[in-house]
Design a protein that fits this description.
The complex is a heterodimer of chains A (about 150) and B (about 400). Chain A has one domain: Sufe protein. Chain: A (Alpha-Beta Complex). Helices cover about 40% and strands about 20% of the residues of chain A. Chain A has 6 helices and 4 strands. A 4-stranded mixed β-sheet of chain A has the order 3-2-1-4, with helices on one face. In chain A, a hairpin with a 2-residue loop joins strand 2 and strand 3. Chain B has 2 domains: about 130 residues, Aspartate Aminotransferase, domain 1 (Alpha-Beta Complex); about 240 residues, Type I PLP-dependent aspartate aminotransferase-like (Major domain) (Aspartate Aminotransferase, domain 2, 3-Layer(aba) Sandwich). Chain B has 14 helices and 17 strands. Chain B has a 7-stranded mixed β-sheet, with helices on both faces. A 4-stranded antiparallel β-sheet of chain B has the order 13-14-17-16, covered by helices on one side. A two-stranded antiparallel sheet of chain B has the order 1-2. In chain B, helix 3 packs across helix 10 and helix 12 packs across helix 14. Chain B is globular, with a radius of gyration of 22 Å. Classes of the chains: A alpha+beta (about 150), B alpha/beta (about 400). The interface between A and B is medium-sized, with 21 and 17 residues. The complex binds pyridoxal-5'-phosphate.
Chain lengths: ~150, ~400
């Protein structure tokens, strides 16, 4: 039960219930679709990028609480950041949900992402947590329609 | 009284704990646990007479050949086939359907029709789509009603003299629906269409007599009936199998080879290319004998009890909706719980030791039909108990509270 509480922390449950920045952007410069065929999770990420800065970022789609909360928290973290900074955050996020994160909260952003620490105890759920992030990176790397699937996720 | 506590002792896996709780294994439609007898029969093969079959004159090869062919006889008896020539060992149901679609497909022509149902496993959809791509056949789908039952009148409308094959699942792995295959087969006969029955979920939950059914093909996988993975069966009527071209080539399926010409072996070897899963076949025969020793009627009655209890108990949860409410049902309960994603449910009940399946169960068109991305599924076997259903029930209540 302890691990479960770690996985489904209040923050995650809250973001699942009231996802921030949810819904498509009517106008965007960058977009990608993410899909995890294993569980059917689906996420669309829309961004407005100007001069290398992420002005707006929204997501839509359907998925489990972990994937939805992860997408929601991600959007709150990267708006206002540069594309490079967003990618660095992704690397840090990846560290948190896999093994080698030492629980030290170095920055405010890391603090918010730290709620996903519990995921690493549930290897089957790492993909749920990282789908939105992979999709965002893919959106930022190209303004064309991008498909992210399970094959290049982990 | 069904002596479930005695029976549970036959399954070594069941006596363990996961996450500090006794394992409650409710994912039997995905694969079943193996009784000690099956494990030991396979061990014995590897420890005492491992050798290739149909090849050597030496002692061990004779023993393994006898065991492998004996397994074929056990399967033949179990499904009441006319002869062992009609029993072909495959890797599983998926390979068996692919074998039929690929070989039968060669003789199909543009405009020929194949009928399946809306509740098929992907394994009984995609092989036919491949033939559609290759040959331009037409794939027709029998719709189902909101309870998850085939609409027979719609089937009657779809079938015609253009129908060459009717390929239908006997029991749905997702819904538990038991389809009226007798009527489906006899209707197909009126139009001279061949019939394939996917018995993956029914071979251990109902009496299968292929002579009485009079189907042309029937397939199932060993691992769903207490046997190992990697072994399955294609039953086919001899006169039809004889006419089909080989599927894969090499090994036992060959009688003689010169660089100019190869002669193919007789049935059933014609369809068994390469060294087969010998230990798997031995394990499968042992599993069928095990089922017989418990008694299929006793199993059917007990599993019906479990289904009724689970349906009642889970229906007490008002936020829970059962997907698949056919009048005639096997011990499978698919459900959705409010808007809580099945993956969250699966992870949470796992912490209580309960193993259920979550996802689309390889039946994506069915998920779309019921307008859900995925379901949670508890599927029962004769080694499950009503107490275990109570634990699932309590665990689901906890999930709801967590997501309040
Ligand atoms: C109804 C049905 N058909 C076919 C299959 C495929 O079986 P296998 O993966 O063992 O080939 C399954 C297994 O999930 C099934 O439930």
């Amino acid at each position: 039960m302890h691990e479960l509480k770690e996985l489904y922390q209040q923050v995650i449950l809250d973001h699942n219930k009231n996802p921030r920045n949810f819904g498509p952007l009517p106008q965007y410069t960058n977009y990608a679709a993410g899909h995890n065929p294993l569980c059917g999770d689906q996420v669309d990420v829309y961004a407005v990028v100007e001069d290398g800065i992420i002005k707006e970022l929204k997501f839509s789609g359907s998925g489990c609480a972990i994937s939805k909360a992860s997408a929601s928290i991600m959007t709150t973290l990267v708006v206002g950041k540069s594309v490079e900074e967003a990618k660095t955050l992704f690397d840090e996020f990846h560290r948190i949900v896999t093994a080698d994160f030492d629980d030290k909260v170095e920055t405010l952003e890391l603090g918010k992402m730290a709620v996903f620490c519990g995921v690493r105890e549930f290897p089957a759920r790492v993909k749920c947590a990282s789908l939105a992030w992979h999709t965002m990176v893919s959106a930022l790397e190209s303004s064309q329609n991008n498909e992210v699937t399970d094959n290049n996720l982990n | 009284m069904f002596r479930v506590n005695e029976i549970r002792k036959d399954f070594p896996v069941l006596s363990q704990s996961v996450h500090g709780k006794p394992l409650i294994y409710l994912d039997n439609a995905a694969t079943t646990q193996k009784p000690l007898k099956v494990i030991e029969a396979m061990n014995e093969y590897y420890r005492e007479y491992n050798s290739n079959i149909h090849r050597g004159v030496h002692k061990l090869s004779q023993l393994s050949t006898t065991a492998y062919e004996n397994a074929r006889s056990v399967v033949k008896e179990y499904i009441s086939a006319s002869s062992t020539e009609e029993i072909i060992f495959t890797r599983g149901a998926t390979e068996a359907i692919n074998l039929v679609a690929a070989t039968l497909g060669k003789s199909l022509n543009e405009g020929d029709e194949v009928i399946i149902s809306h509740m098929e496993h992907h394994a009984n959809i995609v092989p036919w789509q491949m033939i559609r791509q290759e040959k331009g056949i037409i794939l027709k789908v029998i719709p189902i009603n909101d309870d998850g039952e085939i609409i027979f009148e719609e089937y009657e409308k779809l079938i015609s003299s253009k129908t060459k094959v009717v390929s239908i699942v006997h029991i749905s792995n997702t819904l538990g629906t038991i389809n009226p295959i007798e009527q489906i087969i006899s209707k197909a006969k009126e139009f001279n269409a061949l019939t394939l029955i996917d018995a993956s979920q029914s071979i251990h939950h109902s009496h299968i007599d292929v002579k009485k059914l009079d189907c042309d093909f029937l397939v199932f996988s060993g691992h769903k009936i207490y046997a190992p993975t990697g072994i399955g069966v294609l039953y086919g009527k001899k006169k039809i199998l004889d006419k089909l071209p080989p599927y894969q080539t090499g090994g036992d399926m060959i009688r003689s080879v010169t660089f100019e010409k190869t002669l193919f072996n007789d049935l059933p070897y014609k369809f068994e290319a390469g060294t087969p899963n010998i230990a798997g076949a031995i394990g499968l025969a042992e599993a069928l004998n095990y089922i017989r020793s418990i008694g299929l009627d006793a199993i059917i009655d007990y599993e019906k009890e479990l289904l009724n209890y689970a349906t009642e108990k889970l229906s007490e949860i008002t936020e829970l909706r059962i997907i698949g409410t056919a009048k005639s049902k096997a011990a499978v309960v698919s459900f959705v719980l409010r808007d809580i994603h099945p993956h969250d449910i699966g992870t949470m009940v796992d912490m209580d030791g309960v193993a259920i399946r979550t996802g689309h169960h390889c039946t994506e068109p069915l998920m779309r039909r019921f307008n859900v991305p995925a379901t949670s599924r508890a599927s029962f076997s004769f080694y499950n108990t009503t107490d275990e259903i109570n634990v699932l029930h309590n665990s689901l209540i906890k999930v709801i509270n967590m997501f309040k």
